[in-house]
Structures
1.
Amino acid sequence: DAKTTQPPSMDCAEGRAANLPCNHSTISGNEYVYWYRQIHSQGPQYIIHGLKNNETNEMASLIITEDRKSSTLILPHATLRDTAVYYCIVRVGGSNYKLTFGKGTLLTVNP
Amino acid sequence: SQTIHQWPATLVQPVGSPLSLECTVEGTSNPNLYWYRQAAGRGLQLLFYSVGIGQISSEVPQNLSASRPQDRQFILSSKKLLLSDSGFYLCAWREQEQSYEQYFGPGTRLTVT
């Protein structure tokens, strides 16, 4: 699985968009980009995933660059409850589906 | 709807004592099951995963073991705990035919003293 690089921490004002970057320059053509988040003392929560195209769901948007070497998770209107560690994971989809979590980005949403 | 249970929520055990953590999933059949550990200040580490009853794959060598005696039951065990076994233990499941989401339980916080 390709390695990912994320900033260790970011701040965002409540109500503003939070843009979380992820670098995955060694990604292969069949590897997906997944985003999970972990609120303190809870289990991780799936947010979104994508392969090539940009994706949007009720939680967030995922923007993947054309060369697929980086991506950005966008929380359009961050709230205090969005304060969490956000993990960017790159891997091949498949039956075993093992996730390798790095250290992620601690997003702190400030009032 | 599907639900995942883990117990206990917190546990304090002395070094050298045995361990048994249980995870059960409701509302699905033949799920993939996973055990992760998160040590203080560190990322999540995959310990074991299972694609079926009695089928266990270990990701890292350690003094822990896992078993899957029933389709929706996953147990993490140790015969003798070490101080380094302290951490936040998370069970997760995923549908076999679905590729993208893993669903995590509430976790067990283990402190070995």
Note: The mean pLDDT of chain B is 91.
2.
Amino acid sequence: SQQGEEDPQALSIQEGENATMNCSYKTSINNLQWYRQNSGRGLVHLILIRSNEREKHSGRLRVTLDTSKKSSSLLITASRAADTASYFCATDVGGGTSYGKLTFGQGTILTVHP
Amino acid sequence: DGGITQSPKYLFRKEGQNVTLSCEQNLNHDAMYWYRQDPGQGLRLIYYSQIVNDFQKGDIAEGYSVSREKKESFPLTVTSAQKNPTAFYLCASSVGTTFGEAFFGQGTRLTVV
């Protein structure tokens, strides 16, 4: 099964609204990353948060990490139509037999209407 | 320009054939990965490699094989043993054990005809 699970599976909002996506994972991690994928393309890295960090900002993006709940959230503020894409969280479990694995969740499909 | 290149962009395979997908990076990254993505789904890890001449199975390695003879290259062979190979294949690389961001290629779409 997937290490990371995103919620919701799909999100539809109007331009200017905020979009929040959540990610839950199962095992201890070294870091958690968020990626974006436009339809039929490769993934683009958005932000990385380490296990000892609780919050990180990058432009209109805000990521939080709660290691006690094994969950993370990605907030996109003041969304634009160009933010329409799929968003994935990825975890590096970094230990034991899973060392070196970078595992992705199922993704959230975000649609921003003009 | 530095980056990661996958080829071909589209690939068609007949039943029973082996096909090889190319992945090359000039980022001097130690780690490389192969993922499979089915329509509307997330990425599933096929194989990964942390260093030249070494690689590990991911979650869905059956029916696939890889090699890592050079740091910059990590080709994936989809064998005839893979019964449902039609999918979008993504290659990625990262710095390595510090696990910074992964850089992705543009993908290869494989279709069985």
Note: Chain A has no helices and eleven strands.
